[in-house]
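Support request, please re-run this one:
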Amino acid sequence: MTQPTTVPSLLGVFAHPDDESLLAGGVLAQHAAAGARTAVVTATWTADTHRIPELAEALNALGAGAPRLLGYADARNPASAPGDGAVRLVEAPLDEAVGRLVAHIREVRPDIVIGHDALGQLTGHPDHRRAHQITLLAVEAAGLPHLYPDAGEPWRPAALYAATHSEAGMGRLGPLLQSVGKSLLAVPDAYVTTTVDVSPWAAVKWEAICAHRSEAARPRPLPGLLARLPEPERTEIISTEQFTRLSLGPVPGDPHKLVA
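Re-run finished. Output below.
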């Protein structure tokens, strides 16, 4: 008898509410539909802001559970963390931010972690780049028992992927962002290790993107740009997701090891 295929559990780590839906909404919906555990950690915006109920609605559409927040401020929006003493993600003590994320990784115990790429996703947002750096460190630290011992039992994910966009795979997205003066920081095509056709989940992904109503109502953010497109063109843009698999942990027998 053929054994059923187990779909790996998935944890997304993204800088802002809506990043999860735009960059990996299809993959999150795909895994959730197959019965896998899925969750998302969002680094900026706090629970008392208007964007968190929107995030909760988006995650519900994707099947990714309740919001998990690191609680930092957006580098470009003071309203993202109102009140005295709010710390921007880009200025947060690195050890503190890594420790907060380690706690989520150890609680969720994902097989796969997905985060931002090193460029900061096309526009090079500083929060995206910082989230990438924190995720790299936290994924490794989560498996080491002597690091952050109060953050839960050690857990080492099996794989780490960075959501990305290649130069050849940008398609209609490039001109769309250029139309409002945004930069395009695409990776070389060879950097993409995995391209996923998420067209079966495009409607769910679009529902999650639309849940971020405050962004969809604005002219420059990507949800707003997509909302003003004809449906066929919009569906074409959101139906493909690209990722780079990043190496995790030591590689036994590495032929490129250093020698004295």
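The beta strands are 10-14, 38-44, 68-72, 112-115, 159-164, 194-197, 240-246. The longest strand covers residues 38-44.
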